[in-house]
Amino acid sequence: MINTDPNKEIGRRLREARDSAGLSQAELAKALGYESATAVSLIEAGERKFKIEDLQKAAELFHRDIGYFLGHDVPRMDVKVALRADKDLSDEDKKAVLHFIELAKKRHEKK
């Protein structure tokens, strides 16, 4: 987020997340507890500050790290690395998780 107004960057990323989720400004406003879509419109335009409590709600709603909204590119966790680090899962369970991921990828490719 170099040389960028933080409010504009947060607004841009909020709009990006909202669009990716297929939500309207009115739907997002309702989810965040705002009375109208105008508040979301102003936040997305960088003309209204986004309260930290609402930022947390948005992060949970969109399944994103708060750092994403602040302009930080948060690297995605590699599932294979995560599975190697998890000592509680058996090798059989780890194989099942990887198999499920491959099935999901194939299903996504068909769309």
Q: What attributes does this structure have?
A:
434 Repressor (Amino-terminal Domain), 111 residues, 67% helix, 0% strand, mainly alpha, 7 helices, elongated
Second-tier CATH architecture of the largest domain: Orthogonal Bundle
Question: Roughly what is the average pLDDT, rounded to an integer?
Answer: 86
User: What is the H-and-E element order?
Assistant: HHHHHHH
* Rg measurement, Å: 18 Å
Q: Quick one: CATH class of the largest domain?
A: Mainly Alpha
What percentage of the residues does DSSP assign to strands (E)?
Answer: under 5%
- DSSP E strands, number: 0
Given helix and strand content, the structural type is: mainly alpha
- Parts with pLDDT < 50 across at least 5 consecutive residues: none
Q: What's the name of the CATH homologous superfamily of the largest domain?
A: lambda repressor-like DNA-binding domains
Distance between the termini: 34 Å
- Give the CA-based shape: elongated
Number of domains: 2
Largest sheet: none
